[in-house]
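Reopening closed ticket. The problem is back. First fold of the pair:
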Amino acid sequence: MEYVMDWATIVLHVLTLLIVIASFLAIRDNRNQTKDALAEGRKQSQDALAIAREQIEQGKQPILIPLSPLPLTAVVGDLDSTVPELSVDLMNVGTGAALNIWGVIATPESFSRRPFSFSKEAFLSTSENRTVKLGLVKK
């Protein structure tokens, strides 16, 4: 009977050892899965932050619209090139300030070949309107 108890004890110890080894392997696999999940979560968070930053930057862009009509000649659609400059009222309807305003107004080739251009160093803040002078482009 003592002999059977010794074998039973040995078998019990071997089974306990196998359970301990299996537990350590499961813990190691779980740790690796957790590391992978954390890395994926960090990557998704960084991607989401990059998209949010881009949307914020895009939301700060100025949008300029003309408020006044262009002075036209009797020929429909032709700009009056007899004046040295034109005045155009612009309004910023965007969410960001227009810090450096540039533009060109050109007519189709069948009309006047002298486009008007402008460069305004002043800025136009949100919901502000200002008159911009357009000068004839020199040939």
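Second fold of the pair, where the issue appears:
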Amino acid sequence: MSKSIFFFAPAIVIVLILAAISGQYQITKNPATPATPTFPAKVSVMPSPTPVWKTYANSKYKFSLAYQSNWEFYENRKNNVEDLRLVFYAYDISVSPVILTVNGEPGTISTTPSEKIINNIRWSEYLSRQTCSPEECMPRRKELVVRHNGNVFMITTYEDSWEAMTRVLSTFKFLDQIPTLTTTASKVKLLNTSGWQQVKYKNISFKIPKDWVFNELGLTNNSPVFKDSKPMATADTPVILSPEDFGHPLVVREYNGGSRRQWYLDYLKETGETTQGSSVKFQEIKLGKTDALDIIIDNIYGFTPTLVSHGQTIVAIGYDSNNRDKRNPIIDTIISTIEFNN
């Protein structure tokens, strides 16, 4: 029995080899039609829920802001020299923290600031220069600074968290911020300045009509004025004088950014002037390409200013308060020609 088994084993192997060769030949000659691929059923993806925002308000420094509830938030996490320190970690979109301080150490970025207006707040924006080594470039840092009610607010972060910073700033507001009115440029008529004279004073220049004069010493308080060159009244030719007869005052001051409305209120305190018994209104207005702020004060004789700012300079030009209900095309045109040399 055993001999028979081993005798037929070589034959069985030969048959299997032939079968395999035959099968390979058939596959080569008549390849099988490939199966149609199947795809998994389409799965509907639920959109991410809209993030819930939390509000932070500070009654001492009179500001509020909002941040996403899935962010980490710390108040006065580190014991630094600043009066207040808020830290936000937006791990869903960035790694670097967004830090807001009140009355902290001065910023370390020494570049020239640009102006950034967010929610009617005028920030001074500093951006560090790009520095690179052969291996990599260091992330840039951004600081935004504004002064309000005698306090310095600074928000800073690195490049990977600029989006998170923008989200926070889009909600930032001062609780005592005064609302403004807006006037369109189409309501302001400007004059042709051909033939006008160019005036330079400190770090600004502007144009006035050729028959006007500019007096750097002014008439009172050594404040410069510009006015029509017509002579003032004398005892022989008495007339009722208007504020414009004394000349439109010009004030040029250093400016650290922030709200121009607040700058004016601080200026009143500094100079000892008062608006008690009068209502103060602020009106944003566009004069040509110049963004200006009108200060409108009821029941006051004299001038109320129109403010123009750029970089670290703010200019106040006196507007006859008795005619604030009307636009003065000459003064509007003079303001529209202001150029800053800083």
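Update: turned out to be a display glitch only; the data is intact. The CA atoms of residues 191 and 333 lie 6 Å apart. The chain has two domains: 53-174, 181-340. Please close again.
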